[in-house]
Amino acid sequence: xxxxxxxxxxxxxxESSEFVTKRMCFSFLFSIGFICILCGFLLGRFTTQxxxxxxxxxxxxxxxxxxxxxxxxLQHLLLVQLESAxxxxxxxxxxxxxxxxxDDAVHRVRGILSNMSLIHRVVVHPSCIFANTRGSRxxxxxxxxxxGGEGVGIVLELAKIMxxxxxxxxxRPRRSLIFCLILGSSxxxxxxxSKDTFxxxxxxxxxxxxxxxxxxxxxxxxxxxxxVQSVVLxxxxxxxxxxxxxxxxxxxxxxxYNSTTSRLALDIPHAVLSFTNNxxxxxxxxxxxxxxKIILAQILSQTVWRLSxxxxxxxxxxxxxxxxxxxxxxxxxxxxxxxIDKIQETSVKLLNNVxxxxxxxxxxxxxxxxxxxxxxxxxxxxxxxxxxxxxKHRSRTDWVExxxxxxxxxxxxxxxxDEISKCYETAVQVLQNK
Length: 434
Description:
- By secondary structure, the chain is an alpha/beta fold.
- It has 16 helices and seven strands.
- Strands 1-2-4-3-5-7-6 form a seven-stranded mixed sheet, with helices on one face.
- The longest helix has 42 residues, at 22-63.
- It starts with a helix and ends with a helix.
């Protein structure tokens, strides 16, 4: 190279005696190499930085809105498809009141569930059918849906749409789902779950759509443990806001207490979805009953989606606060003044600690999986503490049962109020020991 350059310069400069030396050639090549290495380094650094930023942005979008914002369009898709279910799927409109121990009915339902890629396993018990979906991030946390009667068609339709979403969009629930379809009128699902202590202790929520859920012709109602019940009411608000026609059917529990239903005899967080019976008798059209069924399916879908997809179970205690306030207002102040003051004092302390917990949830790094699981388990423990189940798994803090003590003796009512106060104190301790 040095000879060539020297020859070219000699030809171009008639009087020049300067020639390109070997040192100049090496310097030139070294400079070119250094520039290439520097450009490669800067390009690699830029690419790495962009990859990190892209990964961080992906994580931010994934965790936005408590993990629900990135799948909001899928939530809406669930609502839309469930509204069309009565026109598209015969299984949704089938009268599942006849779903019993007959072999043909069991074979049909098992076949439907087994053909879904979303369903991991189907097990037929003597009195029910279990279908499991494995969670993508928290497979050892479970959201259970128990359904009988017409609830069978609702759950089947929900599972079909979720399966379609999984197939087309690659979605899988964050936590595991268990669908339990009852072969009759009694609910054996919780009893079967209780035999598996591992699963039973890790049930995030147990949602029930029993065979009489659509028989009431009044507004929608949700009973159950405080935290899971609040999630159901939030889901009902979403459904209510989507279509104004729901206003007459979703009152969000703003009704008199004597028309509500008691909690189940369960020691796990749960909720029961149904419509109230307002005592008015009239000829009901098929369209009204069909519309109630669609609303119930939509509320169930949003409840299950939120419980299975949200990063952290955050409790909005507004309904709890309203319930306690109304309940205490109905108590005879002259006889139970000390007990009322004690419950009020404890409930205020409880709500203050819940506010602190929610502040911790808002400040937590959502990407830290261990911290989110710890807070979720704390919320689940809090809901169990608020249930405060006795030896027969009956909730000591069920205000619906308290209202049924109107004609009981002074000592029985006094004992019940003392139990409620102690249960709330235990719930406060759960939060203070976090």
